[in-house]
UniProtKB/TrEMBL annotation:
The protein's name in its UniProt record: Cytochrome P450
Binding site for heme: C389
Gene3D superfamilies reported for this sequence: Cytochrome P450
Organism: Streptomyces sp. R33
Location of region: Disordered: 1-20
A GO molecular-function annotation: oxidoreductase activity, acting on paired donors, with incorporation or reduction of molecular oxygen
Transmembrane segments: none
Keywords: Heme, Iron, Metal-binding, Monooxygenase, Oxidoreductase
Length: 438
């Protein structure tokens, strides 16, 4: 029991259960010497030791969690025991809801939650459709002229236009889009930035200044009037500021940038991967279009399956770091208080015991009755539990609407494709994606 001062003089409880198996140091050193990606080390840990295992990059071990039941335990059943300590993008998103913790996070999430429910989503249906039609119009122009397009850039433009309309009530203009390219620049730079926070900020200071200027202009414009499509999410934040002193201009800026990053980076990446996968598996497009008439529930379900299978292979949140605040027993293993814990949806989604032939792109997993495992910890492209991504339904809706416009009208011919993936906040194709339309 804690004393009146809040200090518990007793030592923390020792965890019960078996010791977590740990990868041999020699294999970690071999990984270091090879210069491989972190995901390669994590895959080695899972293959050798199973769904709850440890590896050591410093003095203390990190526990890797890929077993579905253990995933659910960490993220959904014991979220107060396994907490977020920081976010890799904090220098960009500040104290926005993705990086916030404790009571501040609960207040911020509660405010935004209602905007992304089924009822809340109806407010943004028209804006999603407008952004999709604008992209479809550009693609018609490309097809007539024979002009090359970059698929990744096109998907980023669509997703950024969609979230900008939803935030401000305005379509995205060319000047704002140009300035907001700095968001993608900072996100791509995050894995290589200096460990020191000040040095990291200095390295991307120019991009952060451009992002701040766009945010400041949007906030001031929203104070003056609604956009042509009516109020957006930014107006919800400004309304909160009138009643809640914690919603300073800085926090509103942080939430705005958080929603921009979360609302376009993941969707753009998913759609780019989807088109790269369809290039290798063209029959999947034909099967989706043959599932039903345009606008039918059957076709929509088949198109959504394309998105889900892409998210299985390239989940929006490929890695979810946590910190154990208390000792715990996880799937029979003892996890000590203070342990770093890493949940890896990317590896869970590629576990052959859960997903037969896991490297193969097969959207029928999400349309066949027994096509996918039913345990909630088996498929979590946006996380699960109280910290799951708020924008799940938004992302699925905008992706589906765009594909319903583009898939029947065009096929793509890629002139080159990236040869590898880059593992940052998202798993993105590491290179340009030039293509022509047929």
């Amino acid at each position: 029991m804690a004393t009146e001062a809040g200090f518990d003089p007793r030592p923390p409880a020792a965890p019960t259960g078996r010791p977590v198996p740990e990868l041999e140091p020699a294999l970690v050193e071999r990984w270091r010497s090879d210069g491989a990606e972190l995901v390669d080390l994590l895959a080695l840990v899972r293959v050798r030791l199973g769904g709850v295992a440890a590896f050591r990059l410093g003095p203390c071990p990190t526990v890797l969690v890929t077993d579905p039941q253990a995933v659910q335990h960490v993220l959904a059943l014991q979220p107060d025991r396994y907490v977020k300590r920081s976010h890799r993008a904090r220098l960009l998103i500040g104290d926005g809801v993705l990086a916030a913790t404790g009571e501040a996070w609960k207040r911020q999430r509660r405010l935004l939650q209602s905007q992304f429910t089924g009822t809340g989503m109806r407010r943004y249906e028209q804006r999603i459709a407008q952004a999709a039609r604008a992209t479809a119009g550009r693609w018609e122009t490309y097809a007539r002229s024979g002009q090359l397009l970059d698929v990744g850039r096109e998907m980023r433009s669509f997703a950024l236009d969609t979230i900008w309309r939803s935030l401000t009530g305005h379509p995205l203009d060319a000047a704002t889009e140009h300035e907001l390219n700095s968001v993608a620049t900072v996100v791509a730079a995050l894995p290589t930035l200096p460990a020191d926070g000040g040095d990291a900020r200095d390295a991307v200071a120019g991009d952060l200044a451009r992002i701040d200027a766009v945010a400041h202009h949007a906030i001031e414009a929203a104070r003056g009037a609604h956009g042509p499509d009516g109020p957006g999410l930014l107006h919800i934040l400004l309304g909160a500021a009138a009643e809640r002193p914690e919603y300073t201009d800085r926090l509103i800026r942080d939430e705005l940038i958080t929603l921009l990053v979360a609302g376009h980076e993941t969707t753009a990446t998913t759609l780019t991967w989807l088109y790269l996968l369809l290039d290798r598996h063209p029959a999947a497009r034909e099967q989706a279009l043959a599932a039903g008439a345009p606008g039918s529930a059957e076709r929509r379900r088949a198109v959504q399956a394309l998105v889900h299978e892409t998210l299985r292979l390239y989940p929006s949140a490929w890695i979810l770091p946590r910190y154990a605040t208390e000792a715990d027993t996880l799937a029979g293993y003892a996890v000590e208080a203070g342990s770093d814990v890493v949940v890896c949806p990317y590896l869970t989604h590629r576990d052959p015991e859960l997903w037969p032939d896991p490297e193969h792109f097969d959207p029928r997993r999400f349309t066949s009755p027994d096509g996918r495992p039913t345990h909630p910890g088996s498929y979590l492209p946006f996380g699960i539990g109280p910290r799951a991504c708020l924008g799940l339904q938004f992302a699925l809706r905008e992706s589906t609407v765009l594909l319903e416009h583009l898939l029947p009208a065009h096929t793509l011919t890629f002139h080159s494709v990236p040869t590898k993936a880059a593992y940052s906040i998202t798993v993105r194709p590491d290179g340009p994606t030039p293509a022509s339309l047929v």
